[in-house]
Amino acid sequence: MRTTLTALSTVRPTRRLAVSGLTALGAAGIAATALTGTAHAAAPDAASPASHQAATTAQHLTTQADHAAKTAKPAKDSGKDSGKSGAKDKYADNLDGWIREARAVMAKHDIPGSYDGIKRNIIRESAGDPNAVNDWDINAQKGIPSKGLLQVIQPTFDQYHVKGTPDDLTDPVANIVAACNYAADRYGSMDNVDSAY
Q1: End-to-end CA distance of the chain
Q2: Best CA proximity match to 158, nearest among 141, 188, 137, 179
Q3: What are the tens digits of pLDDT across the range 171-186?
Q4: How do beta strands 75-81 and 88-92 pair?
Q5: CB neighbour class for 36 (10 Å; exposed up to 12, middle 13-18, buried from 19)
Q6: Which pLDDT tens digit goes with each residue over 55-105?
């Protein structure tokens, strides 16, 4: 017993995430790993198809997060007039700016959703890639793949699109606003969404 305790006390914590833990943690665990560092998936157990799928998903999300971090652009003047005091709102052309601009539109239309709730769902759904396309789920098999930051399908986007945003499913702001409008209608707020929706 003493040897076991000594061995355990010398183990240092790491940022590695074992595949066997992915099924318990789910997408939220994968997203948290993508935010804190690189995920290191163990070799999938041949006896567990769920472990193999979780490892593939973890690797995909890590790749998307790395790509999103590399392609983030610096802030620029959007040229949009807020209508208040003649000042122009400035939003960065990156995930932070898209969420902030979407929340400004949402506020005008009484659509709920906190910055943190929106970002949490974006990280889980697309790892922050506005061009993410899900080409493997049931919607994709039916010919209507989920697209964009919050992985919205075209019929849902068409129904919940908000005037004043581009009529383009992959436009980051339009995608966020439409998804939050849908989530508000279905769940009360994007803040209440903790898994695929």
Answers
A1: 47
A2: 179
A3: 999 999 999 999 999 9
A4: antiparallel
A5: exposed
A6: 555 555 555 555 555 555 544 444 443 333 333 469 999 999 999 999 999
